[in-house]
Amino acid sequence: MSEDDGTIQLLIEDDANRTALAELLEERYEVRTDDTELTGDVVLVDDRSLPTYRDQVQSLEAASSFSPVVLVRREGTRLDLDSNSDHRLVDEVVTAPVREAILHRRLRNLLVRRRQFERLEEQNEQLERFASVVSHDLRNPLQVAQGRLDLLESSVADSEREHVEHAQESLDRMDSLISDVLALAREGNELENPTEVQLSTVVANAWSVVASQDADLVAVDEGAMVVADTDRLSSVFENLFRNAVEHGRSDVTIEVGTTADGFYVADDGPGIPPEKRDDVLERGYSSAEGTGLGLDIVTSVVDAHGWELSVGESDTGGARFDVSGVELVRASRA
Asked: What CDD domains does the record tag this protein with (predicted)?
């Protein structure tokens, strides 16, 4: 879609003014002059016609979509656009006589904003569909597994009880992760309880969930604390750890440390080629080995905190994920 694609709807009572504006716009846009229903991407009204069409223009405020309004106002005309009834009634004001370059620039900017709004709506719909899949297609079999484990628990010998406990911990963590993903998908960037948390504690807890038999974890900084939502921060490390274990060697070594304004997770695996480093952070990206859900969750959590995530190469040639913009707090020493 080019910058000149779009529909401009004119609400101009004066025939001569309406015709003049239509001729000015028709080379770049589709122009509509029907005033029975507001269907244009942008609505253009002049100060003389505004009282007539006020109710129609105000109805756009209640619409779920973004329908910008441009007011063409004669120089010196005073309009009460700050009253409660006219709150956000007009998005742009163009002074008459209209200068073509200015009008086209204002319309172009509004059309860009409208397209951005439409893309955001599409993303929200995709998130809602994703949340529905997580809620039903993942939670239902999880509940079945939980029920079967409950039935088996009484028949498991004491010497094998440890396996039941690990299975129960994993099922509980899966249920918690599903809840977090649903919250991210349906609540966006809202963080309920960001607090100062010990980074090493979060890392250790995440590693206990993900750790494989041969992989090793090296924690470089034991004293750092970060201001974050604990559960969501834990999901960042869990997914980055899982990504390293699943895409690296079975005996991969993972290092976690802090930087001047954040933290990193690095490994000594095969790494990510430079031409793919931006791609892996794109929504919905997946490689042949996985679904891409893990890094999607990491990106969502990082965004929710207002941080930034970047991908690079570790000192050993593996992958390195840096999270910056983090509020770090150094624990006081006794």
From this structure: HATPase, HisKA
Q: Do 246 and 211 meet the contact criterion of CB atoms below 8 Å apart?
A: no
Is the same domain home to 326 and 250? yes
**CB of 263 within 8 A of CB of 199?**
yes
Domain that holds residue 47: 7-118
Structure token pair of residue 29: 């846009």
- CA atoms within a 13 Å half-sphere pointing along the CA-CB vector of 120: 10
Give yes or no for a cis peptide into 141 (omega within 30° of 0).
no
pTM of the model: 0.51
pLDDT value for 1: 42
- The answer to whether residues 199 and 168 touch, using CB atoms and an 8 Å cutoff, is no
Looking up residue 135, the CATH number of its domain turns out to be 1.10.287
Identify the H or E element spanning 123.
helix 100-133
Helices in 211-249 by DSSP H: which ranges? 230-247
CB atoms within 10 A of CB 5: 12
CA distance 57 to 38: 8
**Regions of the chain short of the pLDDT cut 70:** 1-4, 62, 64, 78-88, 180-181, 183-190, 192, 211-212, 282-294, 331-334
CA distance 249 to 253: 9
Nearest to 243 by CA among 309, 334, 149, 152: 309
Euclidean distance between CA atoms 64 and 291, whole angstroms: 32
Sequence-distant (≥ 6) Cβ neighbours of residue 93 within 8 angstroms: 70, 71, 73
The pair of structure tokens assigned to 59 is 């109805």
